[in-house]
């Protein structure tokens, strides 16, 4: 319905509101309520609404989930996509059981109920991962999804659940050396690469021969964490990157132990088409 605007000379402002957000407006001359100017503004509102396809609240809710997963699949790793897809599926299943058909119905109380259920069934650590993923989805929707409610994220008000961490077993170096002595071939190459670079499993699995410089005894690890396409700079180390204590660029090049590179060079002569058993060939992971 048209709104009287005294600050605009008592003109009538016609507005089109969809899911709580104004998507169109137009000013009409001043006049009496129900007069010709007011009726013209009201007719314009009705014409605009009839000419556009307005999604229902449920359609908007489902479209948010689909759009966010499309974004994740396009910009993040396959493992991250699989994790977020599972979280979204479980949350939407909860929404269906509770009769939640509108983004506005996702309150902090609902968020707490859902996350508490996950905590009781699967543990606090899993519940915290669900909270992290749902909060990221909500923030993305607030920034990039048309018609998304501009309110504080309901998942933000739910505090992370306390997690009891058991004592982590770290094998002594003597036991690690015994494993090296028993390993051979591609298994030894993988273990030495993990040991001397401190790389993540996913980083080692992505290695290709183009990442290995046998002449300079350097190896390049590619990290997907930055997500900004930054190529990074080369840096040289003789030990694990985990000791650096800081964030690293997307691509970093590390000097490896000579022992490790002698083994890698030997394996390269035995298997020139594949770096290790992870089937990396011709510069492309398989």
Topology:
Layout: E1 3-5, E2 11-18, E3 21-28, H1 36-51, H2 57-75, H3 78-98, H4 108-122, H5 124-144, H6 173-182, H7 185-197, H8 201-205, E4 212-213, E5 218-222, E6 251-255, H9 258-270, E7 280-281, E8 284-285
Antiparallel strand pairs: 1-2, 2-3, 4-5, 5-6, 7-8
Care to describe what's here?
- The termini are far apart.
- The protein has helices at residues 36-51, 57-75, 78-98, 108-122, 124-144, 173-182, 185-197, 201-205, 258-270; strands at 3-5, 11-18, 21-28, 212-213, 218-222, 251-255, 280-281, 284-285.
- It is built from nine helices and eight strands.
- Residues 227-254 and 276-286 have low confidence and may be disordered.
- It is an alpha+beta fold.
| Class derived from helix and strand content | alpha+beta
State the low-pLDDT regions, or none: 227-254, 276-286
Number of discrete helical segments: 9
Q: What is the succession of H and E elements?
A: EEEHHHHHHHHEEEHEE
- Rg over CA atoms, rounded to whole Å, is 29 Å
Profile the largest sheet.
3 strands, antiparallel
Strand content: 5-15%
**Total strand segments:** 8
Shape: elongated
The helical percent reads 40-55%
What is the average per-residue confidence, as pLDDT, rounded to a whole number?
A: 78
């Amino acid at each position: 319905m048209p709104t009287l605007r005294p600050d605009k000379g008592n003109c009538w402002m016609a507005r089109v509101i969809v899911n709580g957000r104004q998507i169109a407006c137009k000013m009409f001359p001043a006049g009496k309520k129900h007069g010709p100017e007011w009726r013209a503004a009201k007719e314009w509102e009705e014409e605009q609404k009839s000419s556009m396809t307005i999604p229902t609240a449920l359609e908007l809710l489902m479209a948010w989930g689909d759009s966010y997963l499309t974004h994740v699949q396009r910009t993040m790793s396959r493992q991250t996509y699989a994790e977020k897809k599972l979280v979204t599926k479980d949350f939407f299943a909860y929404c269906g059981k509770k009769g939640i058909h509108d983004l506005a119905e996702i309150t902090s109380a609902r968020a707490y109920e859902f996350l508490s259920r996950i905590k009781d069934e699967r543990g606090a650590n899993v519940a915290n991962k669900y909270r992290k993923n749902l909060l990221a989805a909500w923030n993305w929707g607030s920034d990039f999804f048309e018609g998304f409610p501009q309110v504080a994220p309901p998942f933000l008000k739910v505090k992370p659940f306390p997690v009891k961490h058991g004592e982590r077993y770290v094998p002594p170096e003597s036991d690690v050396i015994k494993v090296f002595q028993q390993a051979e071939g591609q298994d030894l190459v993988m273990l030495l690469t993990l040991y001397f670079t401190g790389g993540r499993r996913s980083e080692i699995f992505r290695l290709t021969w183009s990442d290995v410089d046998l002449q300079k005894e350097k190896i390049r690890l590619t990290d997907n964490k930055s997500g900004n396409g930054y190529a990074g700079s080369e840096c040289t180390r003789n030990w694990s990157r985990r000791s650096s204590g800081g964030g690293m660029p997307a691509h970093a090049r590390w000097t490896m132990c000579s022992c490790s590179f002698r083994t890698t060079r030997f394996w390269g002569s035995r298997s020139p088409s594949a770096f290790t058993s992870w089937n990396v060939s011709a510069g492309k992971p398989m």
